[in-house]
Amino acid sequence: MSISSSDHAVLPENTDVEITEAVSEEIAQAVESAETVEVVAADEADTADTLTFADLGLPEGVVRKLAQNGVTSPFPIQAATIPDALAGKDILGRGRTGSGKTLSFGLPTLATLAGGRTEKKRPRAVILTPTRELAMQVADALQPYGDVLGLKMKVVCGGTSMGNQI
What is the C-alpha separation between 138 and 150, in angstroms, rounded? Predict the structure, then answer.
């Protein structure tokens, strides 16, 4: 006997059991593979030298503040981009939420700005974001490190009077 419907494919009645068994075997194999990969990655992490923010060339005050905030070793995107950004190279990074992107571009920007003087009413850097919420998150993330370096920052959003913001 077959199961038939105008919105479903026609399948023999006993195929459901075979599909379930095949899917179960695939899931079991995937889980076994994932566990193996995790163990290898953990072993590699133990043997690798731990890179620090000081090794990346960030100012001592920033490194100290990072440590106070519980951030002692850089995420991969930070280790890959901070040295190039500090050297004045353009960087392009992509990653998931929480992967460390904000500090990847923000800390080198702040470190570079710390070495100069600001003229009145002349911003030295602009960070553009697609939403107000993200602008505020970026400012909140960078503010403690800007404070350590003696820098001031301000969030300015479109759709609101400039006089109310500055």
Answer: 18
**pTM (2 decimals)?**
0.66
CATH architecture of the domain 60-165 equals 3-Layer(aba) Sandwich (3.40)
- Angstrom CA distances, 38 to 19, 31, 49, 120, 131, stand at 29, 11, 19, 53, 36
Cβ partners under 8 Å of residue 166, min gap 6:
154, 156
Counted residue by residue, the chain has a size of 166
Give me the residues paired with residue 99 across strands: none
C-alpha of 135 from chain center:
15
Taking alpha carbons only, the member of 133, 154, 130 closest to residue 162 is 154
pLDDT of 19-73, one tens digit each?
Answer: 444 444 554 454 454 443 333 333 344 434 689 999 999 999 999 999 999 999 9
